[in-house]
TrEMBL record:
UniProt-recorded name of the protein: Endonuclease
Region (Disordered): 151-182
Any Pfam family matching the protein: Endonuclease_1
Record keyword Glycosyltransferase present: no
Keyword list, A-Z: Endonuclease, Hydrolase, Nuclease, Signal
Molecular function in Gene Ontology: endonuclease activity
Signal sequence residues: 1-32
Domain of life according to the entry: Bacteria
């Protein structure tokens, strides 16, 4: 049989084309789907100056929008939490952050078995304490079991650790705290609300998320990548949405934009 000789140049071209085709089959191009955009009744009014923006422009617009708020005293937070976190199945109780326990509204205080006011953005991170403003902002204050709250302390948020007694599945280690799955998105959206609301222009520290733990008294809270993951995996619940509405209607008259538009987390960070 007569062998057919293919010119070297053509053989190289064929080989390259074949390799490219095989590579395309072996490693297909993957395109991440963008977060689904949501719409709310407030898009044409409350959020009208933020719609369509991304990045720093969106963050700046949201800061201006949510900074218009009515501030309450720290003592007034007790009664406010009894309304914002009321158990939908028992109006005499509140639902506790981290543990998910339903506990009597009257059991607020500092003793064993009581619930107290948890600063999700730890008040030492930026040293604002309990002062009217970031220290009394209901969008990051939640009722929590006294002991579980003490275990959380001022730790940053991250995955991992050992089980927290009475924590409903929450975990902790020496420098971080992981809420139970049902509260992870809530925590993330509260932290990110604080970073947008408090930008350093009203006498308080500029609060920002970062990728660290053990931030101490610095005005930072980690870890951002983990918080973003939690927000994505645990979208806003009916309880969280009702809470946002009660704060807006009755107390502060501002909203947590990441509850209304969870896709804005990715749009900014």
């Amino acid at each position: 049989m007569l062998a057919i000789r293919i010119p070297i140049r053509r053989r190289k071209a064929v080989a390259l084309a074949t390799a490219a085709a095989l590579a395309a089959l072996a490693t297909p191009t993957l395109t991440a789907a963008p977060a689904t955009a949501t719409t709310t009744d407030y898009d044409t009014t409350y959020y009208k100056n933020a719609i369509g923006k991304t990045g720093t422009s969106l963050k700046s617009s949201l800061h201006t929008i949510i900074s218009s708020q009515t501030k309450i005293s720290y003592s007034a937070v007790w009664d406010a939490l009894k309304a914002t976190d009321q158990d939908p199945n028992n109006s005499a109780n509140v639902v506790l952050l981290y543990s998910g326990v339903s506990r009597g509204k009257s059991l607020n205080g500092g003793d064993l078995g009581d619930w107290n006011r948890e600063h999700t953005w730890a008040k030492s991170h930026g040293d604002f304490g309990e002062a009217t403003g970031p220290g009394t902002d209901l969008h990051h204050l939640r009722p929590a079991d006294v002991q579980v709250n003490s275990v959380r302390g001022n730790k940053d948020f991250d995955n991992g650790g050992s089980s927290v007694s009475g924590g409903g599945g929450s975990l902790t280690d020496s420098d971080s705290f992981e809420p139970r799955d049902a509260d992870k998105g809530d925590v993330a959206r509260m932290i990110l609300y604080m970073t947008v609301r408090y930008e350093g222009g009203d006498g308080w520290a500029d609060l920002e998320p970062n990728e660290k733990v053990a931030n101490g008294s610095n005005p930072y809270m980690g870890k951002l990548a983990v918080l973003k993951q939690w927000s994505d995996e645990d979208p806003p619940s009916a309880f969280e949405e009702r809470r946002n509405q009660v704060i807006y209607d009755t107390y502060q008259h501002n909203r947590n934009p990441f509850i209304d538009h969870p896709e804005w987390v990715e749009a900014i960070w």
